[in-house]
TrEMBL record:
GO molecular function, one term: DNA endonuclease activity
Pfam families listed in its UniProt record: Cas_Cas1
Keyword Manganese belongs to the record: yes
Cofactor(s) the record lists: Mg(2+); Mn(2+)
Signal sequence region: none
The protein's name in its UniProt record: CRISPR-associated endonuclease Cas1
PANTHER family: CRISPR-ASSOCIATED ENDONUCLEASE CAS1, CRISPR-ASSOCIATED ENDONUCLEASE CAS1 1
Quaternary structure and interacting proteins, as annotated: Homodimer, forms a heterotetramer with a Cas2 homodimer.
GO biological process terms on file: defense response to virus; maintenance of CRISPR repeat elements
Binding site for Mn(2+): 147, 214, 227
General function of this protein: CRISPR (clustered regularly interspaced short palindromic repeat), is an adaptive immune system that provides protection against mobile genetic elements (viruses, transposable elements and conjugative plasmids). CRISPR clusters contain spacers, sequences complementary to antecedent mobile elements, and target invading nucleic acids. CRISPR clusters are transcribed and processed into CRISPR RNA (crRNA). Acts as a dsDNA endonuclease. Involved in the integration of spacer DNA into the CRISPR cassette.
Listed EC numbers: 3.1.-.-
HAMAP family cross-referenced by the UniProt entry: Cas1
């Protein structure tokens, strides 16, 4: 038989567990190819090699040109590619998720369809905003009220800090330029956070539409996760940009969010937070390589890839 050209696929035993991988590598303005079992990124400064087996997700920014063989290697290595805006801002499309296991997705679906576990996850999300308070018995109505008061206080705090006048959140999705400078900046910053959160969610193999606090939208879970970092990233950045009164408010806001996300390591934190919310009792990252089971009824599974040629009473 004629040999198949090119490097042999990466052996599963050679793959690094997801918890020990580089969570994300961001590339822009370069040509991406493969050399053996490494991803290569080449620009005018030279060529960088990235071991594919240690990579979680490759974030492809503006000006990237990726080869078919590079994409094949990412798929074989259990990594994913996500096409995004500059330095992580904006989500456009994605390839295979990092997770070959459906464990996180199944945990998300199970939690969101059960009232008690959905409430537990929602409380945990609010608890991340109130780390010094006990929210374990709070209702959703109470949590929404406390969150609303917290956000209003943040708006007042940053208004006083920057000298930017603030009255209320007021914007028209059909007339972005018609809003005040601070409302334009807030809209641009929030949109950036949505793109970043979306990129992490799909890289982990979760569903963007299965939200816990938000509901009924194809990006409900994206809104849930982005809200965890809005007070830390979007609000202060928006007030800083509005105070500087730049000519290009959305552009300056996107660049400021980009830098704040990188400085705060939001991508890696977002990945950890999603796993902790969906699998709070897990002692690993939930990534099992190349595991396929067959459902056996109830909560039972049997090994896949096996011929069950036995007489079963009907």
């Amino acid at each position: 038989m004629k040999e198949i050209p090119g490097p042999a696929p990466v052996d599963i035993s050679e793959l690094v567990r997801a918890q020990d991988r580089l969570s994300f590598v961001y590339l822009e303005r370069c040509v991406i190819h493969r050399e053996g079992n490494a991803i290569t990124a080449m620009d005018e400064r030279g060529t960088m090699h990235i071991p594919a087996a240690t990579l979680g997700a490759l974030l492809l920014g503006p000006g990237t040109n990726v080869s078919h063989q590079a994409m094949v290697l990412l798929a074989e290595s259990g990594a994913t590619a996500v096409w995004i805006g500059e330095r992580g801002v904006r989500y456009y499309a994605h390839g295979r998720g990092l997770a070959q296991s459906s464990r996180l997705l199944e945990a998300q679906a199970a939690a969101v369809t059960n009232q008690s576990t959905r409430l537990r996850v929602a409380r945990d999300m609010y608890g991340m905003r109130f780390p010094d308070e006990d929210v374990s018995t709070s209702t959703m109505q109470q949590l929404r009220g406390r969150e609303g008061a917290r956000v209003r206080a943040l708006y007042r705090e940053h208004s006083e800090r920057t000298g930017v006048s603030w009255s209320k959140r007021d914007y028209d999705v059909k007339d972005f330029a018609g809003g005040s400078a601070i409302n334009q900046a807030l809209s641009a910053a929030t949109t950036c956070l949505y793109g970043i959160s979306h990129a992490v969610i799909v890289a982990l193999g979760c569903s963007p539409g299965l939200g816990f606090v938000h509901n009924g939208h194809a990006r409900s879970f994206v809104f849930d996760i982005a809200d965890l970092y809005k007070a830390e990233i979007a609000i202060p950045v928006a007030f800083d940009v509005a105070a500087a009164d730049p000519e290009d408010i959305p552009g300056e806001t996107r660049r400021a969010v980009r830098d704040a996300v990188q400085d705060g390591r939001i991508l890696a934190r977002c990945s950890r937070d999603i796993r902790r919310l969906l699998l709070p009792d897990a002692d690993d990252d939930g990534q099992d390589w190349n595991v396929v089971h067959l459902w056996d009824g109830g909560s039972r599974n049997v090994t896949g890839g096996t011929s069950y040629d036995v007489d079963v009473p009907w």
